[in-house]
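Task card 7
Instruction: Convert sequence to structure tokens.
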Amino acid sequence: MRNTLLLCILSLGVLALCLCLSRPAAQAAKEPYVIGAVFDITGMGAPLGTPERDTVLMLEKEINAKGGVNGHPIKVVVLDNASDEAKSVTAVKKLVEEHKVLAIIGPSQTGTTLSCAETVQAAKVPMISCAAGNAINNPIKPWIFKTAQSDVHAAAKVLDYCRAHKLTKVAILSVSNAFGDSGLQQIKAQAKGAGVTLITEEAFAPTDTDMTAQILRIRAKKPQAVVCWGTNPGPAIVAKNMKTLGFKVPLIMSHGVSNHKFIELAGPGAEGVIFPTGKLLVAPSIAAADPQKKTLVAYAANYKKTYKVDADHFGGHAYDAFYLVCNALGKVGPDRAKIRDYLETAQFTGVSGVFQFSKTDHNGMTKDAFVMVQVKNGKWVLIK
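Output:
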């Protein structure tokens, strides 16, 4: 009897083992969906690229903890282009040829994005840039989209502010790179329609450490306001120099200073500075009925919990790009062409704005994605 019972137990064990071995495919993890990311993590674009990288890595963990996309884990391969245009091209080629990515998020700046546009188009891999320059999507490039609010709309918000405050004689000081040149073009193109006259133009190099000479020339023209178009550290230096010189006209920046790094770098010079930005920096002040409110608050809280620092505008561009790609994968699967087609008609409420992409608009936002803010006592305050 005892032998018979033992035999039965052994038989059941063997049967269970056989059943387990007969179903390995059912229990095996699905293949990961591989997404590429190229950010300006080091170099002059680091204030943009670093929060973008951190955001994507945070979201990768979050989505995989929830089971990935249709059971497929998301794998993000992040490369640093060192804020260099040639290295941006090299990084994109590596992602496409070696890692066989389904889509690419980034780069962070207009110049580094435009440098790899031809490579992306030739490879037919969808790319969602985190940069703002109008030239990225004008003319339309079939495989390239962007989640940063366009400088077309940023310029419109700046000029709306000038008109509302009767600042009709304005000087502009812009950085000599693709972002600065694009912003300058937009301000010049829209100024007359806004009733604003540009009485003088000045420029500075991305590596300049003092803009006193340019500011003195601007002051001699007696403008009612100064518009500075660039990304840190240049605009922070402009703010510091204007403070030192006692030049007290309104200083209006572009959305390129939309993070706390500007306040850190400019110090007391940041006080009173005005600029257009996405709603994230002032999320608590955004109306509860705003369709972005829930996303803004959740992203800000998750980022603060993960990194112990405040989330910023630039990380939001990466948030939107990541979820646009994941949403596409969820709908059409791992097919580059189908992902591209999905993106071209995607509707999405994100950190940067409410997106409605189309065949003629690969940015999908209006100037309503921006609000105007001012630095008061070292904090961003919504201008209502």
